[in-house]
Amino acid sequence: MSQIADFIGKNARQSVLAVIAKARENESYHALLSLTEERALERADAVDRGEITGRLAGVPFVIKDNFLAYGAPTTAASKMLESFNAPLQATAVEKLELEGAICIGKANLDAFAHGGSTENSAFGPTKNAYDDTRVAGGSSGGSAVVTALDIVPFALGSDTGGSIRQPASFNGVVGVKPTYGAVSRYGVVAMASSTDTIGTFASNVADAEIVMSIISGKDNKDMTTLPDFFEPIDEPVDSKKIGLIKDFMTDDVDPEVRAAVLGYVEKLRQAGHIVEEISLPIVEYTLAMYYIIVPAEISSNLARYDGIRYGRRAADVTTLAELYGRSRDEGFVTENKRRIMIGSYVLSSGFFDAYYLKAQKARTLLINDLRKLFDTYDVLVGPVAPTPAFKLGENSNDPIKMYLADIMTVPASLAGIPAISVPAGTTKSGLPIGVQLMAWRRHDADILALARSVEDDA
Amino acid sequence: MFSFINWGIIGNMTQISREDVQHLAQLSSLQLADDEIYGLQADIGNILGYVDQLAELNTDGVEPTYQVTDLDNVWRDDVIDDYGIDRDELLALASESQNNQIKVPKVL
Question: A140, A158, A163, A396: which one is catalytic?
């Protein structure tokens, strides 16, 4: 597969032209919403002239289209922002550009990152890289697929409840959701502010580590960023104590997914690590917490789309109320409306204590239980999702079935801990399966080093 | 052992009326079409029925978690930073503006 190293020291214009040609050849997957060809070529020429240098000079990448960037609209895969040309760039994009990387396009997602399949994109779904009758996963489906199709060596995504890890699993690539606050969210369309994180897809762990080491760090434009802590680990990995989450290995989980996880566990044991089954019974309730807290934060964050300052404004309206109501009706997909309205419900007077406050207390219990486990275990391991990629359309009429695909990824999101998805084989029919590794906050580098130490050669 | 796959199928439904949906839409500044209200009524009822299971969990005396950074009051110097964006760029994003003001329909 395509790696960062393949692009270092090469003619950047030729690299960019080849990558854009490959993106066009693969248009049928609908992984990209736009190409930033003109700006990419200008930057490539500057690299070739030696005016732009850095660790990633001339390396092409893709960003999820909820990252604000120059060169193409930032649509968040919505009609609301269909023609929104951002006057600024996300900090993560700026940091990559400062190292010479070249953004070549913007990837499809579920509108406003609400979803787990990329079927909620206002511009049509992305198809799975391994089976075009199946979903890409989501919400960062496009970023996962451009990485899996070998178009670019890495692509940025956002992960609020699994939106990097689950599509990484469905497309057989590495996906990193860092510790909450590790990467600045400045210039990324906000969804649920208490769990939104920025991370990356890559074809191998070492490349993901390079990208994370560049985009991580404190940013005065995002007051929730933590002091710098991420540093990839060079030393050999010592013996780890690892907990296998048995609550995620029940008969409800696809047998091939369980087999893949057990295969990975065996590999960890052979590498000298101790793996024991652990129980985390509160995960039964984490999806309920998530689908209270996240819609509440969404209803608040998406209130900014009023049709006035930017974004879609409905035509032929006479009153202000009509302007708000019609612009939002036209600009949001049904899943956006569903989440906004659930959020309005759980935050409304009379229901606040029973839903939102209750969920935030339950979240404390989850965090306490995880903290206790991490007193004994360095790492937790389990599946990323209960199944491999499902069929396009299979879950799209049943929001709860769609939400259930997030059940294994939301615990790390609610707790703010780092979690990654790494490839762990395929089903008999050839669909990729990922395994999830989690650690306590700020131990991102530990799980990446562990994954790298047992990674199969590409 | 819990059986999460079944939750979606046997999930309880919380009764949400058409008027409730219209009220939520109004709170959310959404002017919905009639056919969309019908679908959302069923979906919201099902989702609330699903999340209602949290009531089983004993949270007596537990403090809520509102953020997970452990950061406390992050200050910055009180100096103006325009983040490199000027007024004209921002006004250009609005569909209508006049005399450096964004134009909206009559409020009252």
Answer: A163
The answer to whether residue B23 is domain-embedded is: yes
Q: Are A129 and A29 within 8 A, CB to CB?
A: yes
pLDDT in tens, A304-362: 999 999 999 999 999 999 999 999 999 999 999 999 999 999 999 899 999 999 999 99
B3, part of any domain:
no
Q: Which one of B29, B35, B56, B63 would you mutate to disrupt binding with A, by most A Cβ within 10 Å of its Cβ?
A: B29
Contact B31 A226 (CB under 8 A): no
Q: Does A364 touch chain B (CB under 8 A)?
A: yes
Total domains in the fold of chain B: 1
Q: Is residue B51 part of a domain?
A: yes
Residue B24: inside a domain, yes or no? Answer: yes
Please state the ipTM of this predicted complex.
0.91
Q: pLDDT confidence of A227, banded at 50, 70, 90? A: very high
Burial class (CB in 10 A: 0-12, 13-18, 19+), B6: exposed
- Average pLDDT estimate for A222-248: 96
- Partners of residue A367 in chain B, C-beta under 8 Å: 65, 68
Please name the residues in contact with B103: beta carbons below 8 A apart, sequence gap of 6 or more.
B94, B96, B97
Cβ–Cβ of B2/A362 closer than 8 Å? Answer: no
- Can you give the residue range of the structural domain that contains B42? 8-57+64-102
Q: Catalytic annotation on A241?
A: no
Distance CA A314, CA A451 (A): 49
Digit-coded pLDDT (tens) for A358-417: 999 999 999 999 999 999 999 999 999 999 999 999 998 888 888 888 999 999 999 999
